[in-house]
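Can't paste images in this forum, so I'm doing it all in text. The chain is below; anyone willing to post the predicted structure tokens underneath?
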Amino acid sequence: MRFLKLAAYILAVIILQTVIFPRLSFMGVYPDLILVSVIAFAVLAERNSATLFSGSLAFLQDISSAGIYLNTIVKVIVSNVVCSLKEEFMGNEYSLTAGLVAALTPLILITQAGILYFFFEKNLSWSYLIFSMAATTVYNLLMVPLLFPVVKRMVSGD
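Text version of the structure:
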């Protein structure tokens, strides 16, 4: 039963992330549900299952959005970093998730922009990068209260 819930959640997140949200974006910016899901799952689950979840979810995102498999690499690294950080954290899981979403969203966007700029010679607008970092961080933080309880129920097996 847990596997079916997890598969339904992955399917819903992939459809929202790759089909619905890009069409409902604000100036090209939309939330990264997969990042929020990966961080929440990594905070709530063990390292092995969190790495498997993040790798499979990000791989499906790359396949469905014709990406360059940058999402898979970044999300697996994020999952492992979060799993390492949660071992030393003394607060509650929700605040850790929200704090890591706020900290890692701009870092990931800067990393992705740098890779696209230096390795793939894509043009980079600094003003748009700053705007998209701020807007995506706000969007992702708004998604934390919606996704965290769902992920928590999936991990706990309820």
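The chain has one domain: 2-156. The chain has six helices and no strands.
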